[in-house]
Every structure is written in C-alpha cells, then in structure tokens.
Design brief:
The structure is a single chain. This protein has 256 residues and is mostly helical. The protein has 12 helices and no strands. It is globular, with a radius of gyration of 22 Å.
C-alpha cells in the first residue's frame, strides 16, 4: 500500500469490467452468427441494408447540422465567458454548465412537453433544437477551458505589431482554441449520431437515428447484427479520435 501504483488497482479493475469486457463482448457478438460460428456476414449485411444505410446518412446529416449550430452558438459564448472584461462572475459560467447537471432524458422530456404545450409539431426542427439544447454545453466548456488558459501575451504582441481586433481573433485566438473546438466537435458529433432517445421523444419516432437501429435489433433479440452495428460505430469513433488526437498535437506544436 506504500506504492502509488497500488492505488490505481481499483480503477484498473473498473476499467476491465465496465469498459474492456463490454467492448470485447460487442466484438465477439459482431463476428458470430446465431449458432456461435465466426462470420463476417453481420458486418457485410450493413452495407447491403438499405434501411440501416439511409438511417446512417440521416444521422450524419443531423449530426453535422447540430455540430455546426453548436459551434456557431458555443464559440461566442465560450469567448465571452473567458473574457475577463466581459464576464467577471463565476455565476455566469455555472449557468451555462448547469444543464449538464440534469439528466439528459429529463431535459428531453421537458423540451418535448414544452413543444406540446405551445402546439409546435414535432419533426426535424424540434429534433435539431433539442439536440442543440442538450449538447451545447459540451461544445462551450472545452472551448472555454482552452480560451481561459490562453496566454494573453500572444494577443498583446499581435496588437503591438498593429493587428486589428479582428485579425487578432482569427490569427491568434481561433488557432489557439483549435484543440477545444476539436474536443467540442467530438463530444457533440458522435453522441448525436448514436443517440436514440432524443429523436424518439422529439419527433414521435418519425426520424430514426443510427442508435435507434441498434436498439431495435437488440430489442428484437438480433444480438449479432446489433453488435455489428455497434462495432461499426466504435470503429468510426476510434478513427475520428485518432484523427482528432493528431490535430491536437499539430495545434500544440504550432504554438511552440
């Protein structure tokens, strides 16, 4: 117990049981048929399944729109929160982060009830609104975290050299905040693609996202195909995470 590494054992056990083992089971089921025999048919089925492909395309479209709106709304908010001249109260920051403290399902149900109260028909518009409401804090906080820690001497040096505020923003602030933007995009885009509860409640199941297809297969006891779809999502998440990691290193290297 005197070694610091000993204290990491509970976290290692937790990681193995609740992260590694579930992922391993998903991979095993994805490459098995109903009889437990190894097969690639579940993965190949996705590329010939018109319903799954169209749902995946819709999910990507919704995710792109949601991510872009979150960036357009989240970046100015994060910049204002990080600007000591415009925001001197920690309460303002808490108000932006407060929705993250409430269960996402409860927020979605409350949003759907508001639409019903005002007689607003549920559809793509209400879905985008609910997505932005649910995921906007996940865009604001990473960007704010980077901007708040940004060395102000970069901006001051640019101003001393004659740069306008607009030039300082685009050539100094935005490049420095790139890691925060990438983190925000990752935290908004991928969950939007894989979610299913938000689309069900805010569209009355009129619009299905990729997570809904996975849920339907699991609920229908089609474990192998459902696991294959989940495995494909894991591959996509892994690839995007690697690309985002490389972008973070390049952005950090450009500041040295």
């Amino acid at each position: 117990m005197t070694k610091r590494s000993t204290w990491s054992i509970p976290y290692l056990v937790f990681l193995v049981i609740f992260v590694v083992l579930p992922l391993l089971l998903v991979a095993i089921y994805a490459f098995q048929d109903a009889g437990g025999r190894f097969t690639f048919s579940n993965i190949l089925r996705f590329f010939s399944d018109g319903d799954a492909l169209s749902t995946f395309a819709v999910s990507i479209e919704i995710a792109i729109e949601n991510t872009l709106i979150c960036i357009l709304l989240g970046y100015p908010a994060a910049w204002i929160l990080a600007n000591k001249k415009l925001n001197r109260s920690a309460v303002t920051i808490i108000l932006f982060i407060l929705p993250m403290w409430i269960n996402a399902l409860m927020r979605t149900l409350a949003t759907a009830e508001l639409f019903n109260m005002f007689g607003i028909p549920l559809g793509k518009g209400t879905l985008i609104f609910g997505m932005v409401y649910d995921y906007l804090p996940f865009m604001i906080y990473p960007i704010y975290n980077v901007l708040e820690k940004m060395d102000k001497s970069y901006s001051e040096a640019a101003q001393d050299l004659g740069a306008t505020p607009w030039q300082v923003f685009w050539k100094i602030t935005v490049p420095i905040s790139k890691p925060g933007i990438i983190s925000g995009v990752m935290m908004v885009f991928m969950p939007t693609v894989s979610t299913f509860a938000i689309s069900e409640f805010l569209t009355n199941s009129k619009i299905k996202l990729f997570g809904s297809i996975i849920q339907e297969n699991i609920n229908s006891s089609m474990w192998n195909y459902g696991a294959a779809l989940a495995f494909i999502m894991l591959i996509i998440i892994g690839i995007t995470s690697l690309l985002a990691g490389n972008d973070d290193k390049e952005a950090a290297g450009g500041l040295i």
